[in-house]
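Sequence in, structure out. Go.
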Amino acid sequence: MGQVNYIFYSIGGYFGGHETIYLERGEIETKLSLRHWMKEPETKSKPVDYFDEVLADIEKIIKKWDAEYFDPDVIDGTQWEILLSTHSKEETDRLADETEKIEDITGVRVSSGSNDYPKNFRKLEKYMERLRDGY
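Output:
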């Protein structure tokens, strides 16, 4: 996979709402956006090297993860997704709209789950909470 330019994280459930965090690499800055179902979306600029620091941390956590985790025995649980893309956010969104399976897009790595998680998933959750809280 080439240079990652877009990171997307989403987690939520039927009763607990939904939260997304995304980072997009720019030429002179990193755009960090937070969206929570009960709040107005927020966007902040960070230094361009911030993206690479976050990417390195996330890649360490998810390097051995499968593409999908699913537990069919849980109803109304939690759904989550972490996506790394060599494309911009806009291009990734466009490509996702044009395909049935986002994991089939060249330059996109995605891991997602519904009521099932990799063993170290809590580490990613805590990391993303620190990003959100340090916003």
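Check: Helices lie at 48-62, 89-97, 121-133. The radius of gyration is 15 Å.
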